[in-house]
């Protein structure tokens, strides 16, 4: 039987925070669907800003204070979306640790998107990122393999900051080794994960040379002890990666 993304990433009851770029929201919603289909109760939320998920597929967005609405949605489908009101850009705004605590009284799992990426395939966190809920037990760091071979300044959110941290020029192409540093360095997507479980998800493996994927996995393993999962999320394909 094919492993679920939930099992490969090691998602357990409690709070899972998703950070990074190149498939973060898709990862979160895939996990939510898997959990709900397994009979679990899961709330999807954000601590930053996200576009509202498809209402026909995931249901309406509930205020964090609407406990009755959330409970009813969880009873019906096992899945509920909750966030703050829409901002001027039409994005949902973030919730507080106190509100996350309220979610935990209703649901088995809380999945929280904890930073932004402006729809680019890679990023480095800013000074105030990630906005991890205090209750976070697992951090999933997502990066898009479509960034490989392309200039950092074209594919990376906060490219100038990333270039300084990587000690390269912004126009330098992204290599598997550079991508691994963005993922697993203490100043990278691993930031704030100390004392928590941490796993790297390399998305878009279907458009990546397998040799480059192997180099990226090896480089992540050199940077940290994090487990690595590769995925083609749009095709619902994923597997855990190890060094051969």
Which features characterize this protein?
25% strand; alpha/beta; 244 residues; Rossmann fold; 9 helices
Can you give the mean pLDDT? 96
**SSE topology string:** HEHEEHEHEEEHEEEHEHHEHEE
Give the overall silhouette. Answer: globular
Q: What composes the largest sheet?
A: 9 strands, mixed
Counting structural domains, the number is: 1
Counted by DSSP, the helix tally is 9
Task: Label the CATH architecture.
Answer: 3-Layer(aba) Sandwich
Low-pLDDT segments: none
Evaluate the radius of gyration: 17 Å
The strands making up the biggest β-sheet line up spatially as: 4-5-2-8-1-10-12-13-14
Category by helix and strand content:
alpha/beta
Share of residues in strands: 25-35%
CATH topology: Rossmann fold
Amino- and carboxy-terminal Cα gap: 23 Å
CATH class: Alpha Beta
How helix-rich are the residues, as a percent range?
25-40%
Q: How many strand segments? A: 14
């Amino acid at each position: 039987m094919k492993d679920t993304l939930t099992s490969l990433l090691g998602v357990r009851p409690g709070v899972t925070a998703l950070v990074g770029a190149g498939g973060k929201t898709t990862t979160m919603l895939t996990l939510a669907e898997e959990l709900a289909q397994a009979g679990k109760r899961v709330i999807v939320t954000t601590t930053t800003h996200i576009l509202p998920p498809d209402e026909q597929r995931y249901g309406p967005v509930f205020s964090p204070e609407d406990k009755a609405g959330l409970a009813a949605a969880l009873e019906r489908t096992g899945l509920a979306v909750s966030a703050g009101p829409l901002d001027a850009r039409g994005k949902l705004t973030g919730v507080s640790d106190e509100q996350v605590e309220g979610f935990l009284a209703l649901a088995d799992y809380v999945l929280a998107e904890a930073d932004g990426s402006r729809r680019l395939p890679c990023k480095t966190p800013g000074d105030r990122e990630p906005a991890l809920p205090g209750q976070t037990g697992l951090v999933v760091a997502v990066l898009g393999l479509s960034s490989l071979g392309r200039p950092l300044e074209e594919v990376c959110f906060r490219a100038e900051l990333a270039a300084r941290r990587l000690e390269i020029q912004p126009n330098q192409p992204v290599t598997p080794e550079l991508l691994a540093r963005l993922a697993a360095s203490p100043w990278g997507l691993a930031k704030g994960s100390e004392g928590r479980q941490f796993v790297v998800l390399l998305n878009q493996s279907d458009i990546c040379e397998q040799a480059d994927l192997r180099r990226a996995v090896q480089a992540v393993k050199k940077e940290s002890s994090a487990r690595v999962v590769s995925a083609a999320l749009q095709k619902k394909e994923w597997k855990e990666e190890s060094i051969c």
